[in-house]
Predict the structure.
Amino acid sequence: MPPLPPPIRTLLLLLAATAAAAQSPDPAIPPTIVHHPKPRPSTPATINPNLILIDPAHGAADSGATFPDKTLEKDITLALAQRLQATLQTKGFTVILTRNNSTDDVPEDARIELLNRSRPLACILLHATPGGHGVHLYTSALAPPAAAPDPNAILPWDTAQAPILPQSIRLLADASAALVGIRVPLITGRVSTRPIDSLTCPAITVELTPLAPNGDINIPVADPNYQTRVTDALATALVFWRGHSESSASAAAAKAATPTPATPTPTPKPKPKPKPAPTDPANPDAPLVKKPAPIVRVTPPAEGPAQ
């Protein structure tokens, strides 16, 4: 085979080099990293009026706080959740826990998706701490939106609670009244404890701390009688909250079903009939034509000679 002419050989070498460069990536150029955004909850259209979701904080390797008697927060919140679940079920509620034992390791995003997807009447987040006295209740520290949000809009993941915050504040008021009724020391506030900011349901955080009714006798948070008093009060508050929510929903439905009265159209006033033109008595078929008055010219007197 005769050798190729230099121009053709050079062209073939360039094509081969280009193909090799395309197949082997340049180590100096980093690969493109695709970031997948977190799922963002949308505002629920309807709620399940008999469903309560309870999130016992921590679990598995995340033990939470450790108490002086070596009790772990994850065990206290789970026991409190199961006690509250049993009480609510006797009152006709369906109750779902985000975890059912101390070894459950449910990622936080999965908990949020469960809470939001289920459209519950309320979400109760349970915590416990060795510091403080009595029960602490919190809502999200987010600010409510200035205007009503679009119900079909996609909400940002980290501020999904903001549109529902007014309902959460009313839920906190109901829970506060029930706990004050059983004479348990109470502190309320606004704290963005995880994962409350990402929830689209009315949500409160309940933090249980030791109880010292006489100032010197300390009742630990793991005490069954203490937990029962708190869970009974919370169940009473949720029964009241269910009735409150059903009344609000009924009022909204009745308002939506009531037709808006139509604005009455004003009746136009009848135009006055024209008066018949006067006729000439001498000729009744001819209109009366008034002759113009004669013009009288007044001649001013002549001025006399100057005196």
